[in-house]
Design goal:
The structure is a single chain. The protein is α+β, with helices and mostly antiparallel strands. It has one domain (about 5-235): C8orf32 fold. The chain contains 8 helices and 8 strands, in the order ααβαβαβαββαβββαα. The chain has helices spanning about 15-25, 30-45, 60-65, 70-85, 105-110, 140-150, 195-200, 210-235; strands at about 50, 65-70, 90-95, 115-125, 130, 155-160, 160-165, 185-190. The strands form 3 sheets. It has a 4-stranded antiparallel β-sheet. The chain has a two-stranded parallel ribbon with strand order 1-2. Helix 2 packs antiparallel against helix 4 (about 70-85) and helix 3 (about 60-65) packs across helix 4 (about 70-85).
Length: about 250
Amino acid sequence: MDTNLKPTPILDFDDPAVRTLIRERDWAGLPESERIGAIYDFVRDEIAFGYNASDDLAASAVLADGFGQCNTKTTLLMALLRGAGIPCRFHGATIHKELQKGVVDGLFYRVAPESIIHSWAEVRFEDRWVGLEGVILDAGYLDGLRADVARAGGSFLGYGAGTEDIDDPPVAWCGTDTAIQATGVNRDFGVFADPDSFYREYGANLSGLRGLLFRNVIRHRMNRRVESIRNCSMVAPRPGTAAKATVPGRAGA
């Protein structure tokens, strides 16, 4: 089997819930570009942006949560792509913690590590590798961000976004690279066959006491902040822009 199509303990697309989703959406029956786009759109917008308990959750656990951040959305995206017969690989990196400022502040921000494990999927399409980092933030959250804190438009870094143009970031699947946190990347670890290989070598974010604090306290505050920003897209569109349809959030865990 092609290494870029194999299941792994983290990319567990043989899990019944993941298999059922792929079958019910009939993704495997779509032409290649449409198949990638449909799976990408599902993970981007039907899996809300939010913070899970750990970076190295299995895809089935991310699906059950119904929300995710860069690393967990990458896991789910890769599992669904492979389960639908699309080769993909893992790209590991770190981002500066400034990218998260605003979602987390005060003491919790100060004690966070300067660099945070980050990742995205690369999909094999038309004989080249295409990066899919733009899957992280759902459309509703992006709309809320524009309405609430990114009202000036242009280059923006913070609140989970890092882009040269917050009004029109390259997040839609059109056969080329997508990105939404790229300007926050401060180290590139390169490509790996799967997230399992990467986490074995570099570990996940936050362990020990800081990990315990994140899982039980910090991430819940972050998810409430994310949800409050997402709600802004429904009540306070930025002047000069039309309110857009939003995806209900599920990031309150």
